[in-house]
Predict the 3D structure of the following.
Amino acid sequence: MKLSGLQKLTLLDYPGHTACTVFTSACNFRCPFCHNASLVECRDISEVPEEEFFAFLAKRHGILDGVAITGGEPTLQPGLKDFIAKIRAEGFNVKLDSNGYLPDVLEDILSSGLVNYVAMDIKSSPEHYARAAGLDKINIEKIERSIGIIKNSGIEYEFRTTAVKGIHTPTDFVSIGRWLGDVPHYFIQKFTDSGDVLGEGYTAFSDEEMTSLLAMARIHIKSASLRGVD
């Protein structure tokens, strides 16, 4: 398992848990607003040995109760399932982030019962998905299949969309809501420029605009809410 970063403490990445976040490199998307460009392009990153990570984890019993696995795209890593199993064997819960473009891998991992919480990024409405993912074309059926796998997994989950000016419009959020249905957890996240963004010239919606986007999503998803808005 190739690990490319470790955040030793987070109170945000895994809802309801005190966790650490471990990062994997490489991604099958090229979202122009991605805030982890160096991980996506596998540049200027240093590997965290798996042994070092588990040595760290062994010292965090009673301090941490969860591990969030993110990227990049974790499902690209061939050792992901075994890695999750090792974390669970240490007594920690696991949250997995994914873009859902490898539904077979996602289904195998979720059906194993190893993951406690899964978060899937919904990049945009189906009609604008390829542009938001930074691809010339996309097989939207893969995304739809992963949505169904997650909804029927019996695992706690969330869907989320990072709202970006120049990428999204209010009607995208009406379409996303109709597409997902009234799921229990859907978040619209405010874009922030991390300084390591894949593209250039992208900005955030204002808080007032984010509230308007939320109203669009709530036409179909009553529990939709905002992240990153004061």
